[in-house]
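Re: your question from the hallway

Yes, I did run it. Sequences:
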Amino acid sequence: MATRGRPGPRRTLSEDEILDAALVLLDEGGPAAASIRGIAAKVGVAPNAVYTYFPDKGAVVRALVEKLLGEADAGEFADEGKPWRDRVEALAVELRRRLVAHPGAAALLMSGPMDGPRATALNERLLDLLIGAGVEPADAARATYLLIVYVLGAIALEVADETGPGPLPPEDDRVARRRAGFAQIPAEVFPRSAAAAPTMSRYITTDQYLWGLHRLLDGIDPT
Amino acid sequence: MATRGRPGPRRTLSEDEILDAALVLLDEGGPAAASIRGIAAKVGVAPNAVYTYFPDKGAVVRALVEKLLGEADAGEFADEGKPWRDRVEALAVELRRRLVAHPGAAALLMSGPMDGPRATALNERLLDLLIGAGVEPADAARATYLLIVYVLGAIALEVADETGPGPLPPEDDRVARRRAGFAQIPAEVFPRSAAAAPTMSRYITTDQYLWGLHRLLDGIDPT
DNA sequence: ACCTGAACACCGTTCAAGT
DNA sequence: ACCTGAACACCGTTCAAGT
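Structure:
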């Protein structure tokens, strides 16, 4: 559906260039840096030129979240030859890997409804996989949502732990910093938590993430 | 530890008054309304007077989240006579009820690390409960985190679904609105999702929330 | 110690104008 | 159609001053 009328002087930008600029700013400087004015400066136009491509800032954020979700929706979990648990695990790991690479953007994940086409595609993939595994369709729908809540919740909590801008430090460093924090818990007031501090400091690791995922799959497993 | 020197002209405010004002603004006008300037106007001081009580806006938000978490950490789930599953359920329901009553504030839940005293108290309570139920301490720590991820993730996704300011409409209305939205899913592209639309529209209900919680408890249950 | 007025360096967004 | 300059109504935060 080509629009009528003259094509205009030129189209110096594209939606994707704007989203890429927003993501880079988010990665480098955190949420404050990803302003409309910052994005415009990054791509070399006046601030209000952005409004030619997106109606408002919320639309930019929504499009960025969608784009990130879409990029994660691919990979080995599509291999129908593998056991369904392995495929779910592959998807969960891939989603986490991609989103944690952009902590500033990942923090925006749950800032709006998940109703875009990419989110629906993710839902569809998981639904299909679970039904293929023998889960009753109605239960598969609920289980899909449960999985999405867990995966996105775990990722959101993980990146929420990181304060400033810049990329996420290596897992080991983050665990060490948490351990130092948990060491401050007063054992007189919170004896259980103080005793569990070594375990708690590993919450943000891949193995805790997978442990949780499998406890959840245990509750879903139709066999 | 009383501070030395003269007491000052007067202390017209308290931390709690500021947090209450912030919560009311958040409830009525959404995140944009809960500005430092808005809060100051609401409590009748100049904008910068707020900085006598909190070092910056982030501290106000963190304190508000902590306060909300603390308020939810109470109730019947403390009854040690009841089965542990019922107690976890009571806590989960209470947390959701209280947080969903303030959707604007609930959206801030995962915007920072959960390391305050109220969050630790919640952790302690759950840990104690699970260990009392016979779960191995190391597993209990992991299970506690799993439960927190699920509960907060589900609540965050639920309130993310609501766009504007004002209180959350009744559950029935929200379900109806979602059903209308899901009805738009193209069945040719997403056959599974389109077929599951009636189930999906109920994701934000109490029974789906509890269903997910119990699938998760099934994976944790030591018996 | 606590509060105020004024200012600084930002925002998102709109509008009229240019091509 | 697309972009610009200028402006509007906001932000969070700081500073010097008052009591």
